[in-house]
């Protein structure tokens, strides 16, 4: 039923990863790393399995992981969250987003996101019967026009979903924009859902500022993150929500009928990860920044117009600069033409806005440096 317009059929990530596998192409489409994360985290998962942590976890998540999430919020952002009532472990950020939207959105409520948006937002807003309204992020810097934003958020707005650092644009919102979001949410009595899965992936010395740190924001902010990006464990699907106790209770009510619980032995392992030293956290961004440079240099040499990201692990390019006006068509042909896979930005926008993003293509740079060099040299042959 939901797939009749083709929007909620196979995700672009599945489609492009299948294409990469079939053709043996380099997969810069789906965003997952091709190297393992910290050894201590991997060892902790093995130890947890050996210690018999293999049955259902408590509904809110293993207490030690919730404690570690609370410590992480305090250590990096000075935020206080009670692990007993204000923190919930989920099956990745994906379930956190789904359970939050399903818990808070009634049919007909408006949900505002920036556009392009992570595809799961549109899908779950649709499942909840909400109306999805967007504020454009435009090249070259992909920052919102705050006046336009003012006209989109109204008393009908139930949620404003923020994704900072942003997928797919790589934008990192400045304090001024985040403060504006908080002010608008207050004015219209809306909740803010902030997807911060790329919180540790910011470049050039920039700092990520969580929405919940703004005065008066905590009471209406649902902060979502995930271990997948920070610890290179996208397959473990450990995510979390930090929110006021009554909101957590509402989200938990939905979550228990989605997955109930997940990933018991991975939960203590992620607690170990969250407690790793500052060197580890500094190394995530510096390693990725090198990868970003390799891919960007290659894409520029290949003739693309490149929009350098401030955060996350994707780079957008304009394919018109190399003679392809339609990036969706190019994405389907690229694996055959040069053996590289990317994802068209059209997958992250509403059908009526595709024209504005038609020539944008996304490449992921969370791959080994030799893989990125090889991809860059193949793209030069386009
Ligand atoms: N939000 C954004 C912005 C993402 O890019 C992703 C993909 N990792 C997710 C959520 C999903 O995260 P998870 O794998 O933890 O479900
Ligand atoms: N978040 C990753 C991306 O944007 C993977 C998403 C997915 O496979 N659903 O590529």
What CATH architecture label of the largest domain applies?
3-Layer(aba) Sandwich
Integer average pLDDT = 96
Broad CATH class of the largest domain: Alpha Beta
Largest sheet descriptor: 7 strands, mixed
How large a portion of the residues is in β-strands, by DSSP E? Answer: 15-25%
Number of extended strands:
13
What is the CATH superfamily classification of the largest domain? Answer: Type I PLP-dependent aspartate aminotransferase-like (Major domain)
Number of helices: 13
Whole-number tally of structural domains: 2
Q: Any idea what the radius of gyration is? A: 20 Å
What's the CATH topology label of the largest domain?
Aspartate Aminotransferase, domain 2
The oligomerization state is single chain
Shape: globular
Structural class: alpha/beta
Could you give the distance between the termini?
A: 39 Å
- Helix content class: 40-55%
Ligand set: 4'-deoxy-4'-aminopyridoxal-5'-phosphate, glutamine
**SSE sequence, one letter per element:** HEHHEHEHEHEHEEHEHHHEEHEEEH
Query: Would you identify the regions where 5 or more consecutive residues have pLDDT less than 50?
Result: none
């Amino acid at each position: 039923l939901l797939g009749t317009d083709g929007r909620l059929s196979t995700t672009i990530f599945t489609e492009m990863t299948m294409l990469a596998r079939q053709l043996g192409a380099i997969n810069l489409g789906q965003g997952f790393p091709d190297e393992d994360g910290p050894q201590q985290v991997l060892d902790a998962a093995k130890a947890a399995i050996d210690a018999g942590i293999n049955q259902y976890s408590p509904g809110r998540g293993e207490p030690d992981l919730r404690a570690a999430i609370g410590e992480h919020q305090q250590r990096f952002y000075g935020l206080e969250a009670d692990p007993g009532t204000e923190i919930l472990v989920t099956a990745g950020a994906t379930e956190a987003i789904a359970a939050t939207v399903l818990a808070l959105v009634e049919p007909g409520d408006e949900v505002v996101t920036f556009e392009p948006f992570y595809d799961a937002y549109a899908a779950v807003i649709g499942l909840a019967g909400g109306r999805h309204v967007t504020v454009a992020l435009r090249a070259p810097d992909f920052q919102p026009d705050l006046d336009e934003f003012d006209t989109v958020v109204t008393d009908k707005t139930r949620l404003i979903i923020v994704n900072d650092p942003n997928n797919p644009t790589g934008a990192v919102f400045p304090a001024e924009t985040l403060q504006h979001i908080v002010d608008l949410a207050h004015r219209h009595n809306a909740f803010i859902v902030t997807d911060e899965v790329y919180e540790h992936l910011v470049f050039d010395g920039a700092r990520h500022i969580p929405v919940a740190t703004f005065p008066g924001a905590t009471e209406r902010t649902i902060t979502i993150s995930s271990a997948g990006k920070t610890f290179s464990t996208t397959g473990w699907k450990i995510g979390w929500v930090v929110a006021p106790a009554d909101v957590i209770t509402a989200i938990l009510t939905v979550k228990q009928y989605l997955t109930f619980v997940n990933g018991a032995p991975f939960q203590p392992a992620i607690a170990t990860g969250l407690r790793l030293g500052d060197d580890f956290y500094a190394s995530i961004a510096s390693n990725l920044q090198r990868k970003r440079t390799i891919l960007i240099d290659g894409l520029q040499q290949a003739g693309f117009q490149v929009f350098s990201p401030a955060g996350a692990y994707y780079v957008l390019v304009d394919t018109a600069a190399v003679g392809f006006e339609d990036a969706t068509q190019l994405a389907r042909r690229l694996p055959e033409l040069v053996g590289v896979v990317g994802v068209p930005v059209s997958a992250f926008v509403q059908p009526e806005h595709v024209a504005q993003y038609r020539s944008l293509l996304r490449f992921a740079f969370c791959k080994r440096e030799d893989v990125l060099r090889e991809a860059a040299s193949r793209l030069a042959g386009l």
